[in-house]
Structure formats: C-alpha cells, structure tokens
Amino acid sequence: MITEAFYMLFDIWILLAMLAGIAVGIIIGAIPGLGPSMAIALLIPITFSMQPIPALLLLLGVYQGAIFGGSISAILLNVPGTPSAAATALDGYPMARQGKAGRALRIALYASVVGNFFSCLVLMALAQPLASVALDFGPAEMAVLIFFALLVIVLLGGGSKLDALIMVMVGVCAGVVGLDPISGSPRFTFNSFSLENGFALIPVLIGLFAMSEVLVQLFDRPKSDVVEVPIPPVPNSHVGWLDMWRMRSTLVLSSAIGTFIGILPGIGSTIPAFMSYGLARSRAKDPERFGKGEDAGVAAPEAANNAVTGGALVPMLALGIPGDAVTAVILGAFMLQGLAPGPFLFRDHGVEVYAIIEALLIASLPTILIGLALFRVAIHVIRVRPRHLFPVIALLSVFGAYSVNNMLFDVWVMLGAGVLGFLFRRSGLPVPPLLIGLILGKPLEQAARQALLTSGGSPAIFVSSPISIGFVALIVVLVAGTLVLPHLRKRQKPL
C-alpha cells in the first residue's frame, strides 16, 4: 500500500499543488491578522473541481506554510503572524534588532522543516494502527470517545472553561439541526427544506473564520493600523548544518513535544511552542542568553509549533476528531472530497491517505527552497495592511459559500455565521470550540442513541467494555485534575 501510494506521487499536478500550497501559506502566514484557518476556508471552494489528492495537499501545504510564515513577521516586526509565533518573537526579534534577521529567519525555516518531518513520521506510524483499533469501537465506545474529546477541548483548551463549554454547546445544538439520524423526522428546521440537511459546513467555516474577521477589522480597526512600522534590514546570512546539529537535542525534544501535544484535541500550537521554549531555556548552559537573541530560542518554538501540524492530523484522520480549528476546516475539505476521516478511512482509501502523508514528508526539501526564495517577497508582503485585503476576502466569501451547493441560502448561512462569529469574538468567546462542537455534535448524538437503543435505554452500556471503561476513567481523571483538585487546594490554603 505504501509503495503504491508512492507511485501516485509521480503526478505533476500533485507536486504543483503541494508547492503552491506551501508558497501561499508562507505569504498568508506572514501577514498579521490572517491565518491558516481563514485561508483554507476560502480555498476549499476552489478545490471542488480538483482531484482529491492534489486538492487536499494544496490545503495541507497552506497549513504547513502558514505556521512557518507567522514567524517572519514575528522576527522582523515583533508582531506574530500566527499566535504560536509569539514564542519565536522572544528571541527572533532581538536577533533582528542586532542585524541578524537573516540568520533568525533561516533557523526558523530549518527548525520548521525538522518539526514537520518528525510529526509526519509519527503520523505515518500511529494513524493507521489507531484507526485499526477504532474499527472495533461500537456506538458506546464512539460516544464516550467523542465526549472525552469535547471535554478535553473545554478543560485544556486554554482561556475560560465556562466560555469554551458554552461555545461547544452552541456548536452541538447547531449540529443537531436537520433530519433526525434515527427516525428521519425533521428537527428545528422551521419548515425550511434547505435546513433538512442541517447547516452546510463550508459556509459556516467561511463565515466564522473569514467574514467574521472582515467585520472585526471593519468595526474594531486599531489606530496602529495606519502607522508605518520600520522593517529591519535582512542581510544575507549563512546557517550551516553544523549550526543546526549543535541544536539537535533541542530540535528533537521540541518536535516530540509539538507532535504529541498536537494529538490532544483542542490544545493548539501555542502551548507546545512556549513549553518547548521553556524547556530549551532550562536545559541551556547559559539561560540568561534567552530573550536576547539566542539561536535555540528561535529553533525550539518553531520546531514545536510546526510539529503540531502532523500531530493534529493523527486523531483527525484516524478517529474523525479534529485537534484544532485548522484541522476542523481540513476535515470539512476531506469530507467534500469523499474521504470521510475516521476508522474506515484507511480501510477504504488507504492508498490515497498514505500518498498524502508521503507527499507531506517529501515536501520537506522543497519547503526549504521555497522559504529561502520567498524571504524577500515576504518582507514586502508584511507591509500590506490586512484592511486592504478584506474587501477581496468578503467577495471571495460570498462566491465560496454560493459555490458549495449553488444556493443563495448558503450565502445567508455564511453571513449569519459571520455575524455570530463577530459578536462572539467581540464578547471574548472562543470560536474554535463552536466549530468542533458543530462537527462532532451529530456523530455524538447518533452514537449515543444507537448505544441506548441497543441496551434498551440502559446507560450501563457506556461502561460495559474495557475501551469505554478506560475512556470513562480518563474523563474522571481529567475532571478531577482540572476542576476538583485545584478547588480543594484553594480551600486548604491557610488564611
């Protein structure tokens, strides 16, 4: 299967799609205010007429490229293009101020490639065995697994747990709109035929991540947007393999942290980036050099946040559970191409999946070449103010939503999702949990109801197998560790 998948890569369109995706991702990631979620959501309608493998590699290339692209503006302007690049700015920006911007950018690029390559190896090793195990899951096991994933997103996603819970519940409620999965009767459709299939995922994605950002920029445009920020010079600098070899332990540990934390749903790439930075600093011979322009301070977070890309794909491909907002968007793209992520994906489309993973591995060397070629372009790109791009983004959002089903109703769904996303963001409520709740809400309901029908309504079926008991135990540990124990410690503190 792996050999057959490799032969599929000798297609010029697959290579071009991957390279184009990486290049577009680097440029988009370099512009503060944009991000991979918005870019992928807007590009999904363009992939409708493409073959599945080139289409998905285009989007995955954008994902990988954008994560690295965020480090460009972080290093040059101290303005992270993506949230995870904030850790890179701690040492990258001081290096730029010292005239070492070229060196910092090259270290970030090479570390990003190492992180991507490591995570893709883990993805190839873990995804198929995990999917094989999941084939033995019954409805009860799947229901407990999905509930556990949603709980992880709420409790470990960062920020307010209550806000995350509210948004997950909103997403789950939106996901049950349409025909009842058991009886087939319409629910919450308000006699609208267009709602019988529920809310179309792509218009919702475009509205939440693209149109909401347009509205945020329109109503909350910061005053600093009109201020010209000087960009430090980027002299030619050489970073050899020996320089990277000296940081090999930092690169491997950071890649491992990013990969395995990325597997956990809802964590994202920001936390592993700062964790890796802290670990590199604690292991350094001279920790005081960190924050002043240390090479390892750039390499560690970049290896970690780029390794998250492969790690987050493991539960998405094997279980159909997105690890973060970006993989949730990519999951929608897989479904549109007829490759529904989950336990049956490797069984029914194993060759295509392995072709995608192998392409991500092989793309490491071209990524270096593309990154080096786009440094000069990206320097000019980051001068572009995002508000100049948003009229185009708004237009693409409308066309993208309409092109899904050629229905005006989907445009209204997109606009409604955009307004809701704008209001949620203005209120400080996180949008990614809503999207993940929307995706997982329907399979959670279906699995839970099938399990209860099988057991005659007895909830004991959810603890009737070793797998479900294991997940229930993890749920108890998770709740106890994040809610109960901190509360008890507060009560035991002396006055």
Question: How do the strands line up in the largest sheet?
Answer: 1-2
> The biggest beta sheet, please?
2 strands, antiparallel
- Tell how many strands the DSSP assignment holds: 2
β-strand amount? under 5%
Q: Helicity range of the residues?
A: over 70%
What's the alpha carbon Rg, rounded to whole Å?
Answer: 23 Å
Count of discrete domains: 1
Which overall shape is indicated by the principal axes computed on the Cα atoms? Answer: globular
DSSP helix count?
Answer: 20
Alpha-carbon distance between the two ends:
65 Å
Structural classification: mainly alpha
Average predicted local confidence, pLDDT: 84
Low-confidence parts? 223-227
SSE string: HHHHHHHHEEHHHHHHHHHHHH
Task: Provide the descriptors you would attach to this structure in a database record.
single chain; 495 residues; mainly alpha; two-stranded antiparallel ribbon; 2 strands; globular
Q: How does this structure look, described?
A:
It is a single chain. The chain is 72% helix and 1% strand. It has 495 residues and is mainly alpha-helical. It has one domain. Strands 1-2 form a two-stranded antiparallel ribbon. Helix 3 crosses helix 9, helix 9 packs antiparallel against helix 17 and helix 9 packs across helix 18.
